[in-house]
Amino acid sequence: MAEYIALVHKEPGTSFGASFPDLPGCISAAKTLEELRPMIEESLGLHIEGLLEDGEALPEPSALDVIVKSKDYKDAVAVMVVKAPETPGATVRVNITLPEKTLAQIDRKAAQKGMSRSSFLAKAAERW
Asked: pLDDT tens digits, residue range 79-108?
């Protein structure tokens, strides 16, 4: 499991923000550092999932000493090392039987979240 470095930023009067130098666009924010950690873990997981769905390779994590020496990151106030989630294996098609009412509930919830039925069921199983 890869570990990526998240840099935490904080300006006066703002929330804490976090970004991953190795994963441009993967960011998160929270009012406290305690709230930030689970949010950046979720952001990292979703970002990695998106890269894999797009057929892109995951970047190799940079070493901490390389990141902290970069001028681009001199304003960071803290560094967190975040474990990347396990990447899923191959997608497998399955056939399941559900009550019609349950399937309709699944489809409604999936649509509300902008997800496919399969993605919704997979996320629900992961969270359970």
From this structure: 766 777 666 666 778 889 999 999 999 999
- Domains defined for the chain, CATH in brackets: 1-89 (3.30.160.250), 90-128 (1.10.1220)
- Whole-number Å distance between alpha carbons of 71 and 67: 9
As a whole-number percent, the residues of the chain with pLDDT over 90 amount to: 23
Cα distance between the two ends of the chain: 21
Strands 27-30 and 78-83 come out as unpaired
pTM of the model: 0.59
User: Is the Cβ–Cβ distance between 19 and 27 less than 8 Å?
Assistant: yes
Structure tokens at 98: 């559900």
Q: What angle do CA 52, 58, 64 make, to 5 degrees?
A: 145
Q: What is the mean pLDDT of residues 45-49?
A: 89
The rounded distance, in Å, linking the Cα atoms of 74 and 36 is 20
Residue type, 86: E
